[in-house]
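Side project, low priority. Logging it here so it doesn't get lost.
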Amino acid sequence: MEISGIISAIVIGVIIGALGRLVVPGRQHIGILWTILIGIVAALIGAAIASALGVDDTKGVDWIEWLIQIALAAVGVIALDRAKAGSR
């Protein structure tokens, strides 16, 4: 992976993580770095799922791919928030 790919993964991860966090109701007790990491992982996994389903390259905006990535980020935010709440 080239440096431009890494930078774009981070930027997309920030956006996906933030959107995933916004979808989850209430206050989450995780930091911004965790949100970014969850977003990056969700973006990568979501892209792979979209590719497997054949919806990764459509005409215009790839809305289905974005929705998959945001849903995965929301699940990741909920899982980490609950894991941190359970450790308190």
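Brief comment: The chain has a mean pLDDT of 86.
Revisit when time allows.
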